[in-house]
Amino acid sequence: MTDPRLADLLASVPDLRLKTDAGDLEHYGRDWTRRWNPAPLAIALPGTVEEVQGIVRWANRHKVAIVPSGGRTGLSGGAVAANGELVLSLERMNKVLDFNRVDRTLTVQAGMPLEAVHNAATEHGLVYPVDFAARGSCSIGGNIATNAGGIRVIRYGNTREWIAGLTVVTGSGEVLQLNRALVKNSSGYDFRQLMIGSEGTLGIVVEAILRLTDPPPPTNVMLLALPSFEVLMEVFNEFRGRLRLEAFEFFTDRALRHVLAHGAQKPLEDEYPFYVVTEFASNDEATEAAAMAAFEHCMEQGWVADGVISQSEAQAQQIWRLREGITEAVARYKPYKNDVSVRISAMPAFLQETQALLGEAYPHFEVVWFGHIGDGNLHINVLKPDDSSDADFVTQCEHVTRLLAQALVKHGGSISAEHGIGLVKKPYLASTRSEAEIALMRGVKQVFDPNGILNPGKLFDA
Ligand code: FAD
Ligand code: MLT
Ligand code: ZN
């Protein structure tokens, strides 16, 4: 270890685990975007809050940037370290610290994988309801830093709703205990909420107090085949009106083709252009009848052409795989990902405009649509053709994203619904946030991170 800065780091934080092998720098320096070449200075794997504090103080002395790092499943480049940063991986801080039955809270270290959080809640007969396909590898700290959404937002909301308290280390190395699991706390600015979704630019989340809730009632999962995009919101309104929805997700025939090629089972005899996966409470004859009534009404109206309802847990999982398997199935095409949202009421007009826009703009690329339509959140993935260079492909996609950003301004939407801004969406932040807001964000960053050492260049430039 020849770098004198790293020698000083080890002198300041004596038991710190540090990795500098080329393979580790590569592994920890990138996220799921795979667009930037990793080039971190080193990887620090602290085991305690005090070690995190020591690292931050060291970084301030040497003016070394820190990239907080969870599971690196992020889709916006937030955890990328491509400029000599120190990656601060929370992966060793992955334990349950406390369960409080009265408060119904679980206190965990930030590096705990989401699925481990689910399992820990289940052990106590409760659930942590934020959920999505990266559950096995993303961390709760990363979920908090991106305000992650997922497949159950329609019923439970985003990560933001489930955070009762946070312990963070700020950019100047102070440890803050935010909200301490209080249900009511009208004592000024809520820094806990400010930290949620701040993408590692204001503080390093080291511990979180998570709210838990009762398990949902028994549910059923239905796959619906739709003849056109235009009827999507009609079907949503019909099902939402009659049932307690736990999820309402959509994808196109192209998405289905990729998932089937990736090993999923064909769900219906015929092919259709659009599909919905919906999960709803189904615990008695009345709810089962309501589901059938919604389905039959949609069939009569011509909004649904075919469908299947799960008869077992295994079949429910098979149906879910069709939706949840899309990200992995298209990953080999290095997709350019749009993750946009509008108010649910604005969705029909936005869908119509976006469909026309992308049809014209991308005649040569395969575009795969899917998303959390019940939350007004669309994922539009443009697949890179094998014969196109990464740089050319991204340039062409960015041109189209500028047009999409204009449509979002018109419809009052957001350029990032749930993945965060990171590096990928940074050029388009102004389509969603006003100049005055971005100036205030810079001011806030200055307060929490005066030397600009926490994830600089992500979200906005200083
Ligand atoms: P990372 O990628 O490691 O980091 C993400 C950001 O958080 C970075 O800016 C990083 O610096 C910061 N960060 C990480 N840990 C901390 C910390 N302890 N303190 C401060 N900052 C920190 N996202 C959704 O919202 N909904 C989905 O449905 C969804 N599905 C996905 C499915 C797949 C298959 C994949 C690969 C990704 C999916 N994602 C989804 C995206 C991703 O999983 C989420 O953004 C997740 O919250 C990132 O967690 P992570 O631990 O991997 O964070
Ligand atoms: C999803 O909804 O599947 C995730 O947000 C991942 C993605 O957009 O690829
Ligand atoms: Zn999503």
From TrEMBL:
<dbReference type="GO" id="GO:0051990">
    <property type="term" value="F:(R)-2-hydroxyglutarate dehydrogenase activity"/>
</dbReference>
<dbReference type="InterPro" id="IPR016169">
    <property type="entry name" value="FAD-bd_PCMH_sub2"/>
</dbReference>
<keyword id="KW-0862">Zinc</keyword>
<dbReference type="InterPro" id="IPR051264">
    <property type="entry name" value="FAD-oxidored/transferase_4"/>
</dbReference>
<dbReference type="InterPro" id="IPR016171">
    <property type="entry name" value="Vanillyl_alc_oxidase_C-sub2"/>
</dbReference>
<comment type="subunit">
    <text>Homodimer.</text>
</comment>
<dbReference type="InterPro" id="IPR006094">
    <property type="entry name" value="Oxid_FAD_bind_N"/>
</dbReference>
<comment type="similarity">
    <text>Belongs to the FAD-binding oxidoreductase/transferase type 4 family.</text>
</comment>
<dbReference type="InterPro" id="IPR016166">
    <property type="entry name" value="FAD-bd_PCMH"/>
</dbReference>
<dbReference type="GO" id="GO:0022904">
    <property type="term" value="P:respiratory electron transport chain"/>
</dbReference>
<protein>
    <recommendedName>
        <fullName>D-2-hydroxyglutarate dehydrogenase</fullName>
        <ecNumber>1.1.99.39</ecNumber>
    </recommendedName>
</protein>
<dbReference type="GO" id="GO:0071949">
    <property type="term" value="F:FAD binding"/>
</dbReference>
<dbReference type="InterPro" id="IPR004113">
    <property type="entry name" value="FAD-bd_oxidored_4_C"/>
</dbReference>
<keyword id="KW-0479">Metal-binding</keyword>
<dbReference type="GO" id="GO:0046872">
    <property type="term" value="F:metal ion binding"/>
</dbReference>
<keyword id="KW-0274">FAD</keyword>
<dbReference type="Pfam" id="PF01565">
    <property type="entry name" value="FAD_binding_4"/>
</dbReference>
<dbReference type="InterPro" id="IPR036318">
    <property type="entry name" value="FAD-bd_PCMH-like_sf"/>
</dbReference>
<dbReference type="Pfam" id="PF02913">
    <property type="entry name" value="FAD-oxidase_C"/>
</dbReference>
<dbReference type="InterPro" id="IPR016164">
    <property type="entry name" value="FAD-linked_Oxase-like_C"/>
</dbReference>
<feature type="domain" description="FAD-binding PCMH-type">
    <location>
        <begin position="36"/>
        <end position="215"/>
    </location>
</feature>
<keyword id="KW-0285">Flavoprotein</keyword>
<keyword id="KW-0560">Oxidoreductase</keyword>
